[in-house]
């Protein structure tokens, strides 16, 4: 196999498989160092891993003069997909009936407030600054998506079990579902305004949501029945891995939301199985290496040269999204104040991390509106790096 261009400077010519294995090993080794640094500083290890990825992008594009892109090539996408499905499955496990009875109304109030105010802030703000309608509406819809991996990992690392921590986990568990709905409606509206094909966009969004629910149910029901009948140890671990790989593969094949399908499966297993904690515990044991790949590759995916072309849009999007999330969280807490008093007014800032789902939406928008595609992709990728570095810090601040 031929050597990738980004590694043509090596004195030897190793095969592509050996290079890939070495890069994977280096990422995991760096994660150990990041964990040590995180324990001795105020920086979350997630932010450090994203910074490592940005460093990889700098070396690849500036030092070696290669084009932007993930260093693992075609292997990057399945690794990222598996990591996100793992996180979504674990978050689905948080949606037990007991928790929904106690926190359901609160989750809805705060999440809808953050989404509504945040979307308006980004959309109206970008239009007021003179950006095209396609760019403003697309980024307003993309701003809804939250990276569940960053929020969940930061909350778990903090060991916080108070209301605010449980509320954050509940919100990010449904956030991407809201994001898919809002994005589908935005694409439909833009399609109707510009080309009259809004009906197609609505059908695609309906299939992405409805198909994901059907897939999650089709896998979750037998999984819930099986979980209570397997002994602890290797059989349960095999079951957990089978669930994750099936969800990631089938959802990609059908073109439905893998996150929503995994959340539905996790919720069914948590509510219907007799020993529902076994599958979740097994996934937690093997989840971190995949998250390492996810965060490093997220930082490495930035195209530094295209990022410079949309610097103004990127800065505006970052500031407007932060403002909208803060204001939406503040309004949500005010509306829910009669229900619960243990909520910080800045809780919306803990919902700023953004990663794979936002990038996927940007790719779809760029494909649908190619004239604005480069600007959209540059703004989303650049802001994603900022949100992945800043987001965990804001989560820790809100939890404090």
Structure report:
This protein is mostly helical. Helix content is 77%, strand content 0%. The protein has 15 helices and no strands. The protein has helices at residues 16-40, 45-63, 76-92, 97-128, 133-142, 148-158, 163-194, 198-227, 234-254, 258-272, 277-300, 304-309, 311-336, 356-368, 373-399. Helix 6 (148-158) runs antiparallel to helix 7 (163-194).
Q: Over all CA atoms, what is the radius of gyration?
A: 21 Å
β-strand number: 0
Please report the number of helical segments: 15
Mean pLDDT: 75
Q: Helical residue percent?
A: over 70%
Protein structure class: mainly alpha
Amino- and carboxy-terminal Cα gap: 51 Å
Query: Quick one: overall form?
Result: globular
Strand content: under 5%
Low-confidence stretches: none
Q: Helix and strand succession?
A: HHHHHHHHHHHHHHH
Largest sheet: none
Helices and strands, with pairings:
Layout: H1 16-40, H2 45-63, H3 76-92, H4 97-128, H5 133-142, H6 148-158, H7 163-194, H8 198-227, H9 234-254, H10 258-272, H11 277-300, H12 304-309, H13 311-336, H14 356-368, H15 373-399
Helix pairs in contact: 1-2, 1-11, 2-11, 2-15, 3-9, 3-10, 3-11, 4-5, 4-7, 4-13, 5-7, 6-7, 6-15, 7-8, 8-9, 8-10, 9-11, 13-15, 14-15
Q: Features of this protein?
A:
400 residues, mainly alpha
Question: Care to give the gist of this entry?
Answer:
With 400 residues, this protein is mainly α. The protein contains 15 helices and no strands.
């Amino acid at each position: 196999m031929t050597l990738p261009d980004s590694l043509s400077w090596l004195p030897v010519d190793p095969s592509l498989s050996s290079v890939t294995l070495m890069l994977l090993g280096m990422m995991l080794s760096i994660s150990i160092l990041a964990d040590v640094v995180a324990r001795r500083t105020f920086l979350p290890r997630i932010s450090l891993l994203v910074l490592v990825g940005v460093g990889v992008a700098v070396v690849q594009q500036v030092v070696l003069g290669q084009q932007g892109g993930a260093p693992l090539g075609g292997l990057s996408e399945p690794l990222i997909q598996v990591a996100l499905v793992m996180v979504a499955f674990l978050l689905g496990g948080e949606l037990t009936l007991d928790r929904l009875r106690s926190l359901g109304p609160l989750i809805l109030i705060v999440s809808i407030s953050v989404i509504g105010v945040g979307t308006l802030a980004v959309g109206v703000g970008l239009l007021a600054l003179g950006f095209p309608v396609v760019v403003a509406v697309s980024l307003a819809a993309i701003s809804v998506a939250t990276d569940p991996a960053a929020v969940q990992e930061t909350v778990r690392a903090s060991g916080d079990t108070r209301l605010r921590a449980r509320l954050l986990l509940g919100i990010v568990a449904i956030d991407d579902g809201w994001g898919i709905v809002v994005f589908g409606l935005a694409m439909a509206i833009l399609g109707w305004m510009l080309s009259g094909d809004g009906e197609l966009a609505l059908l695609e969004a309906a299939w992405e949501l409805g198909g994901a629910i059907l897939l999650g149910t089709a896998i979750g029901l037998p999984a819930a029945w099986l979980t209570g009948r397997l002994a602890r140890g290797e059989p349960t671990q095999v079951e957990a891995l089978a669930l994750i790989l099936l969800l990631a593969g089938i959802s990609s094949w059908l073109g439905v939301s893998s996150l929503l399908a995994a959340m539905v499966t996790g919720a069914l297993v948590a509510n219907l199985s007799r020993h529902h904690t076994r599958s979740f515990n097994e996934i937690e044991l093997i989840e971190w290496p995949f998250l390492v790949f996810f965060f490093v590759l997220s930082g490495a995916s930035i195209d530094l040269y295209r990022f410079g072309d949309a610097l103004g849009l990127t800065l505006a999007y970052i500031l407007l999204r932060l403002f909208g999330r803060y204001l939406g969280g503040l309004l949500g807490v005010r509306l829910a104040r009669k229900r619960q008093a243990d909520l910080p007014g800045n809780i919306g800032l803990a919902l700023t991390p953004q990663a794979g789902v936002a990038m996927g939406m940007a790719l779809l928008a760029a494909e649908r509106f190619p004239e604005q595609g480069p600007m959209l992709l540059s703004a989303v990728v650049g802001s994603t790096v900022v949100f992945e570095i800043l987001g965990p810090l804001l989560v820790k601040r809100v939890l404090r």
